Amino acid sequence: MPSEMAAAIIHERKIRYPSEIYVRDIAMSLGAYVRERDLKGCEARLVRKENVGIITVNRNIPEEGRKRFAIAHEIGHFILHTGTQLIFCDEEDMHVWKESKTREFEANKFAASLLMPYEIFDRFVLSGRPTFDVISKIAKEFRTTLTATSLRYIGFSKEPCALVVSKDCVIKWYQKSDSFNYHVKVGEKLSFDTFAFDFFDGVELNKNPDSVPARAWLAGAIDDESDIIEQSVSLGSYGVVLSLLWICDDVRTTYGRYDEEPDEPEFDMTNPFTPDGKRWK
Q: What is the tens place of the pLDDT at every residue in 227-280?
Protein backbone atom coordinates (compact mmCIF):
# COMPACT_ATOMS: atom_id res chain seq x y z
CA MET A 1 0.00 0.00 0.00
CA PRO A 2 2.73 2.62 0.73
CA SER A 3 4.24 2.24 -2.75
CA GLU A 4 0.83 2.42 -4.41
CA MET A 5 -0.15 5.56 -2.53
CA ALA A 6 3.13 7.26 -3.44
CA ALA A 7 2.67 6.24 -7.08
CA ALA A 8 -0.83 7.75 -7.07
CA ILE A 9 0.55 11.08 -5.84
CA ILE A 10 3.14 11.08 -8.64
CA HIS A 11 0.51 10.13 -11.24
CA GLU A 12 -1.96 12.78 -10.10
CA ARG A 13 0.68 15.48 -10.55
CA LYS A 14 1.74 14.13 -13.95
CA ILE A 15 5.38 13.95 -12.88
CA ARG A 16 7.55 12.40 -15.60
CA TYR A 17 11.13 13.34 -14.71
CA PRO A 18 13.23 13.30 -11.52
CA SER A 19 13.70 17.08 -11.72
CA GLU A 20 9.95 17.54 -11.29
CA ILE A 21 9.80 15.88 -7.86
CA TYR A 22 9.59 18.88 -5.51
CA VAL A 23 9.06 17.12 -2.20
CA ARG A 24 8.23 20.28 -0.20
CA ASP A 25 5.59 21.33 -2.73
CA ILE A 26 4.10 17.85 -2.64
CA ALA A 27 3.90 18.01 1.16
CA MET A 28 2.19 21.40 1.04
CA SER A 29 -0.35 20.21 -1.53
CA LEU A 30 -1.24 17.33 0.79
CA GLY A 31 -1.77 19.60 3.79
CA ALA A 32 1.64 19.40 5.49
CA TYR A 33 3.81 22.49 5.87
CA VAL A 34 7.59 21.85 5.87
CA ARG A 35 10.03 23.89 7.92
CA GLU A 36 13.63 23.55 9.12
CA ARG A 37 14.69 23.86 12.76
CA ASP A 38 17.48 22.76 15.09
CA LEU A 39 16.42 19.34 16.35
CA LYS A 40 18.19 17.24 18.94
CA GLY A 41 18.00 13.47 18.81
CA CYS A 42 15.91 13.21 15.66
CA GLU A 43 16.04 13.79 11.93
CA ALA A 44 12.48 15.02 11.57
CA ARG A 45 9.13 15.14 13.31
CA LEU A 46 5.48 15.38 12.35
CA VAL A 47 2.78 17.23 14.27
CA ARG A 48 -0.75 16.64 13.02
CA LYS A 49 -4.16 18.07 13.77
CA GLU A 50 -6.86 16.32 11.78
CA ASN A 51 -5.97 16.83 8.08
CA VAL A 52 -3.27 19.46 8.62
CA GLY A 53 0.31 18.81 9.63
CA ILE A 54 3.68 20.44 10.23
CA ILE A 55 6.83 18.58 9.19
CA THR A 56 9.96 19.82 10.91
CA VAL A 57 13.27 18.63 9.50
CA ASN A 58 16.63 19.03 11.19
CA ARG A 59 18.39 21.95 9.51
CA ASN A 60 21.76 20.46 10.51
CA ILE A 61 21.41 17.54 8.11
CA PRO A 62 24.24 18.27 5.66
CA GLU A 63 23.12 16.32 2.57
CA GLU A 64 20.23 17.44 0.41
CA GLY A 65 19.32 13.84 -0.40
CA ARG A 66 19.11 12.85 3.25
CA LYS A 67 16.97 15.90 4.04
CA ARG A 68 14.62 15.16 1.14
CA PHE A 69 14.27 11.56 2.30
CA ALA A 70 13.43 12.71 5.84
CA ILE A 71 10.70 14.98 4.48
CA ALA A 72 9.31 12.21 2.25
CA HIS A 73 9.43 9.83 5.22
CA GLU A 74 7.28 12.22 7.29
CA ILE A 75 4.87 12.67 4.37
CA GLY A 76 4.54 8.89 4.50
CA HIS A 77 3.54 9.07 8.16
CA PHE A 78 1.13 11.90 7.39
CA ILE A 79 -0.60 9.92 4.64
CA LEU A 80 -0.43 6.41 6.08
CA HIS A 81 -0.69 6.78 9.85
CA THR A 82 -3.58 9.17 10.29
CA GLY A 83 -4.32 8.12 13.86
CA THR A 84 -1.02 9.48 15.20
CA GLN A 85 -0.76 13.13 16.24
CA LEU A 86 2.96 13.38 17.02
CA ILE A 87 5.84 11.37 15.52
CA PHE A 88 9.59 11.74 16.11
CA CYS A 89 11.98 9.96 13.72
CA ASP A 90 15.71 9.54 14.24
CA GLU A 91 18.43 8.49 11.83
CA GLU A 92 17.92 4.80 12.62
CA ASP A 93 14.23 5.04 11.64
CA MET A 94 15.29 6.16 8.16
CA HIS A 95 17.10 2.82 7.70
CA VAL A 96 14.31 0.44 8.71
CA TRP A 97 13.73 -1.92 5.79
CA LYS A 98 12.24 -4.84 7.71
CA GLU A 99 8.63 -5.17 8.76
CA SER A 100 9.54 -5.67 12.43
CA LYS A 101 9.02 -1.91 12.86
CA THR A 102 5.95 -1.70 10.66
CA ARG A 103 5.27 2.02 10.84
CA GLU A 104 8.83 3.10 9.99
CA PHE A 105 9.14 0.40 7.33
CA GLU A 106 5.99 1.68 5.62
CA ALA A 107 7.16 5.30 5.80
CA ASN A 108 10.48 4.35 4.21
CA LYS A 109 8.81 2.39 1.43
CA PHE A 110 6.57 5.37 0.76
CA ALA A 111 9.53 7.78 0.74
CA ALA A 112 11.54 5.64 -1.67
CA SER A 113 8.57 5.31 -4.02
CA LEU A 114 7.81 9.03 -3.86
CA LEU A 115 11.37 10.20 -4.53
CA MET A 116 12.22 7.43 -7.00
CA PRO A 117 8.92 6.52 -8.72
CA TYR A 118 8.79 3.09 -10.32
CA GLU A 119 8.10 4.10 -13.92
CA ILE A 120 10.73 6.86 -13.86
CA PHE A 121 13.42 5.01 -11.92
CA ASP A 122 13.12 1.88 -14.04
CA ARG A 123 14.49 3.77 -17.04
CA PHE A 124 17.77 4.37 -15.19
CA VAL A 125 18.46 0.77 -14.14
CA LEU A 126 21.01 -0.80 -16.48
CA SER A 127 21.72 -4.44 -17.16
CA GLY A 128 25.14 -5.80 -16.31
CA ARG A 129 27.45 -5.26 -13.37
CA PRO A 130 25.97 -2.96 -10.70
CA THR A 131 28.48 -0.41 -9.39
CA PHE A 132 28.41 2.59 -7.10
CA ASP A 133 29.55 4.70 -10.04
CA VAL A 134 26.32 3.89 -11.86
CA ILE A 135 24.19 4.30 -8.73
CA SER A 136 25.85 7.62 -7.80
CA LYS A 137 24.88 9.09 -11.17
CA ILE A 138 21.27 8.00 -10.58
CA ALA A 139 21.34 9.47 -7.06
CA LYS A 140 22.45 12.80 -8.53
CA GLU A 141 19.54 12.75 -11.01
CA PHE A 142 16.95 12.03 -8.30
CA ARG A 143 18.67 14.12 -5.57
CA THR A 144 18.62 11.15 -3.23
CA THR A 145 21.18 9.58 -0.90
CA LEU A 146 23.55 6.87 -2.06
CA THR A 147 22.04 4.46 0.48
CA ALA A 148 18.42 5.02 -0.53
CA THR A 149 19.27 4.93 -4.24
CA SER A 150 21.32 1.74 -3.86
CA LEU A 151 18.45 0.01 -2.05
CA ARG A 152 16.02 1.09 -4.75
CA TYR A 153 18.45 -0.07 -7.45
CA ILE A 154 18.81 -3.49 -5.80
CA GLY A 155 15.03 -3.86 -5.81
CA PHE A 156 14.90 -3.23 -9.57
CA SER A 157 18.03 -5.06 -10.70
CA LYS A 158 17.80 -8.43 -12.38
CA GLU A 159 21.42 -9.12 -11.45
CA PRO A 160 22.26 -11.28 -8.39
CA CYS A 161 23.39 -8.43 -6.14
CA ALA A 162 23.01 -7.15 -2.59
CA LEU A 163 23.71 -4.03 -0.54
CA VAL A 164 25.30 -4.61 2.85
CA VAL A 165 25.59 -2.04 5.65
CA SER A 166 28.41 -2.43 8.20
CA LYS A 167 29.16 -0.39 11.27
CA ASP A 168 31.82 -0.83 13.97
CA CYS A 169 33.24 -3.67 11.86
CA VAL A 170 29.98 -5.65 12.20
CA ILE A 171 27.53 -6.53 9.41
CA LYS A 172 24.31 -4.79 10.46
CA TRP A 173 21.83 -5.56 7.70
CA TYR A 174 21.49 -6.11 3.98
CA GLN A 175 19.01 -6.12 1.15
CA LYS A 176 19.25 -8.34 -1.90
CA SER A 177 17.80 -8.65 -5.38
CA ASP A 178 15.38 -11.45 -6.21
CA SER A 179 18.10 -13.44 -7.95
CA PHE A 180 20.62 -13.22 -5.08
CA ASN A 181 20.00 -16.66 -3.59
CA TYR A 182 22.26 -16.45 -0.56
CA HIS A 183 22.24 -15.02 2.94
CA VAL A 184 24.79 -12.55 4.26
CA LYS A 185 26.37 -13.03 7.68
CA VAL A 186 24.33 -10.43 9.56
CA GLY A 187 25.52 -9.81 13.12
CA GLU A 188 29.00 -11.22 12.52
CA LYS A 189 32.26 -9.26 12.49
CA LEU A 190 33.58 -8.48 9.05
CA SER A 191 36.06 -10.96 7.64
CA PHE A 192 39.56 -9.58 7.08
CA ASP A 193 39.19 -10.92 3.52
CA THR A 194 36.66 -8.15 2.74
CA PHE A 195 37.51 -4.66 1.54
CA ALA A 196 35.01 -3.26 4.03
CA PHE A 197 37.20 -4.57 6.85
CA ASP A 198 40.07 -2.36 5.65
CA PHE A 199 38.14 0.81 6.52
CA PHE A 200 37.67 -0.23 10.15
CA ASP A 201 41.29 -1.44 10.28
CA GLY A 202 42.53 2.02 9.35
CA VAL A 203 43.64 0.97 5.88
CA GLU A 204 42.72 3.01 2.80
CA LEU A 205 39.57 1.54 1.30
CA ASN A 206 39.76 0.05 -2.18
CA LYS A 207 36.76 1.69 -3.85
CA ASN A 208 36.94 -0.32 -7.07
CA PRO A 209 34.90 -3.50 -7.65
CA ASP A 210 37.09 -6.56 -7.17
CA SER A 211 36.94 -10.25 -6.28
CA VAL A 212 36.95 -11.50 -2.69
CA PRO A 213 36.27 -14.98 -1.28
CA ALA A 214 32.51 -15.57 -1.29
CA ARG A 215 32.73 -17.21 2.15
CA ALA A 216 33.85 -13.83 3.55
CA TRP A 217 30.32 -12.49 3.05
CA LEU A 218 27.95 -15.41 2.52
CA ALA A 219 26.55 -17.63 5.23
CA GLY A 220 26.54 -21.40 4.90
CA ALA A 221 29.00 -23.98 3.61
CA ILE A 222 30.61 -21.93 0.84
CA ASP A 223 33.45 -23.44 -1.17
CA ASP A 224 36.80 -21.80 -0.47
CA GLU A 225 37.52 -21.35 -4.17
CA SER A 226 34.32 -19.41 -4.97
CA ASP A 227 34.58 -15.64 -5.39
CA ILE A 228 32.18 -12.73 -5.29
CA ILE A 229 32.58 -9.13 -6.50
CA GLU A 230 32.68 -6.51 -3.75
CA GLN A 231 32.73 -2.74 -4.00
CA SER A 232 32.73 -0.79 -0.73
CA VAL A 233 32.49 2.91 0.10
CA SER A 234 32.53 4.68 3.46
CA LEU A 235 29.91 7.19 4.49
CA GLY A 236 32.26 9.79 5.90
CA SER A 237 31.75 10.72 9.53
CA TYR A 238 28.92 8.23 10.07
CA GLY A 239 31.36 5.36 10.55
CA VAL A 240 29.34 3.22 8.13
CA VAL A 241 30.48 1.23 5.11
CA LEU A 242 28.19 0.35 2.21
CA SER A 243 29.20 -2.79 0.31
CA LEU A 244 27.76 -3.72 -3.04
CA LEU A 245 28.02 -7.45 -3.70
CA TRP A 246 27.56 -9.06 -7.12
CA ILE A 247 27.71 -12.70 -8.11
CA CYS A 248 29.21 -12.99 -11.59
CA ASP A 249 30.10 -16.70 -11.45
CA ASP A 250 28.41 -19.63 -9.76
CA VAL A 251 29.10 -19.82 -6.05
CA ARG A 252 29.69 -23.43 -5.07
CA THR A 253 28.79 -24.89 -1.70
CA THR A 254 30.36 -27.79 0.11
CA TYR A 255 27.03 -29.48 0.71
CA GLY A 256 26.91 -32.97 -0.72
CA ARG A 257 30.65 -33.15 -1.37
CA TYR A 258 32.22 -36.48 -0.50
CA ASP A 259 35.02 -38.72 -1.59
CA GLU A 260 33.95 -41.02 -4.33
CA GLU A 261 33.23 -44.54 -3.19
CA PRO A 262 34.94 -47.36 -5.08
CA ASP A 263 32.78 -48.85 -7.78
CA GLU A 264 30.58 -51.72 -6.68
CA PRO A 265 31.58 -55.03 -8.30
CA GLU A 266 29.32 -56.11 -11.09
CA PHE A 267 27.74 -59.55 -10.59
CA ASP A 268 26.63 -61.88 -13.32
CA MET A 269 23.16 -62.75 -12.08
CA THR A 270 22.90 -65.59 -14.65
CA ASN A 271 25.80 -67.42 -12.97
CA PRO A 272 24.52 -69.77 -10.22
CA PHE A 273 27.67 -69.18 -8.18
CA THR A 274 28.92 -66.06 -6.42
CA PRO A 275 32.40 -64.66 -7.16
CA ASP A 276 33.79 -66.58 -4.15
CA GLY A 277 32.41 -69.92 -5.46
CA LYS A 278 29.32 -70.20 -3.27
CA ARG A 279 25.87 -70.93 -4.64
CA TRP A 280 23.37 -68.06 -4.60
CA LYS A 281 20.69 -68.53 -1.96
A: 999 999 998 767 899 999 999 888 988 764 444 444 544 444 445 454 455 444
Q: By the 8 A CB rule, do 53 and 33 touch? A: yes
Strand order in the sheet with 210-213: 170-176, 161-167, 240-246, 227-234, 210-213
Tell me the per-residue pLDDT of 120-170, one tens digit each, with 9 for 90 and over: 999 999 888 899 999 999 999 999 999 999 999 999 999 999 999 999 999
pTM of full prediction above 0.90 = no
CA 156 to CA 103: how far, in whole Å? 23
* Cβ–Cβ < 8 Å for 103, 110: no
